Amino acid sequence: MVAYLIAVPVILFAWQLVGGVPILLLIIWVTLDGNPATAFHQDGTFSGVSLNLSFTTLMLASWAFVAGIFLAVRFIHQRRFLSLVTPSRSLDWRRLFQDLRSGSGWWRFLPCWRPFSTPAATF
Prior knowledge:
The protein has about 120 residues and is mainly alpha-helical. It has helices at about 1-20, 20-30, 50-75, 95-100, 115; strands at about 40, 45. It has a two-stranded antiparallel ribbon with strand order 1-2. The termini are far apart.
């Protein structure tokens, strides 16, 4: 129980504080660059900045989240990171591809798959 009480703040710290550093740096860069076309708005959007740069900066927080989970699992719970996915010593790639080929694969629930998996009458 104590491990969970320690792990949750570590994950939140990595996700919110460490993951927020790239966003903060982009906000500072946009504010101080002297270009009137670039701005950071109160609703959290950027103007005058490439959408790819803005998106990549926001997604870096997800990598910090995964790093926080890795730190919690590996060092606080003292388990292998792969134990979140499988109890085996290694990942069985054959089973993974078997799942992806079957109808129960996670890709079936992607929005791009939905039109192909629903009856034509619902369009």
